[in-house]
Design goal:
This protein has about 140 residues and is α/β, with parallel strands linked by helices. Helices cover about 15% and strands about 25% of the residues. The chain is built from 2 helices and 8 strands, in the order ββββαββαββ. Strands 2-3-4 form a 3-stranded antiparallel beta sheet, with no helix packed on it. The longest helix has 17 residues. The protein starts with 11 loop residues before the first strand and ends with a strand.
Length: about 140
């Protein structure tokens, strides 16, 4: 389970911009699930299958034995320390399976309320529920 804003022991901090998928509607970030072709210095987005070139500063150093932190298997969560002064508000998309027994739904509701209480005031929050149907709130 991933808990938004939970303190993570050994969280990897990196002081550079994330490498984003070039497909405008995708925008996913380079991660351990991305396929990397070290020969062509390209990576394939695991969400939209778009092949993307690495930035020049990656191309100079990347190899099978020298990976950036976002490709380390143990770094499924990374915190980027962005150099720009103004950052966009954090975005959270919460997904909940509502096809469960009432007791589990109550526990999920309590967990969601706790998560919402921990989020920054300027956070953008999306909520999706699914059971027999899927709803975007």
């Amino acid at each position: 389970w991933y808990t938004p804003l939970k303190a993570v022991d050994g969280l990897q901090l990196v002081e550079y911009e994330p490498v984003l998928c070039k497909v405008g509607s995708c925008g996913s970030v380079l991660n351990p699930c991305s396929f990397v072709d070290f020969r062509t210095k390209m990576w394939t987005c695991p969400f939209c299958s778009q092949a993307n070139p690495f930035p020049a500063h990656y191309v100079e150093h990347i190899s099978e034995t020298m990976l950036p932190a976002e490709l380390w298997p143990q770094c499924s969560t990374i915190e980027y320390i962005l150099p720009q002064v103004v950052c966009a508000p954090p975005v959270f998309l919460l997904v909940l399976d509502i096809a469960v027994i009432e007791e589990e739904l109550e526990q999920a509701r309590d967990s969601l309320q706790q998560s919402l209480a921990m989020m920054p005031q300027n956070a953008l929050v999306g909520f999706i529920t699914f059971g027999a149907n899927c709803y975007v709130h």
